[in-house]
Amino acid sequence: MNKPLRNPEIVWRVEKRRQAEVLKALETGEDVADTGTVILLLSGMMHQLNLIGGMIWEQCDGQKTLADIAGELAKEFSVEQAEVESDVAEFVADLAERGWLINE
Between the CA of residue 27 and those of 20, 52, 77, what are the distances in Å? Predict the structure, then answer.
């Protein structure tokens, strides 16, 4: 999947207040891996994505490549892009398998 695109049938929103709380908690070293910041509604079911998953989801606009997305995350968290590329690819592949992302 070169340029992932969010499935237009999914209604979603960023929980901005929760996202800000999670970012603040990260600064103090808290474990926030299971805290949802993006809500997806699909077929009457609600799903949550954590901070990193939500950040990836937001960038899946059909314009950015996986490398672009990994680069943005690397910049945001001050890590090498190579450190996040496989994680981004794996996460995007999982969402594509679920039908939540499509290839543009």
Answer: 11, 15, 11
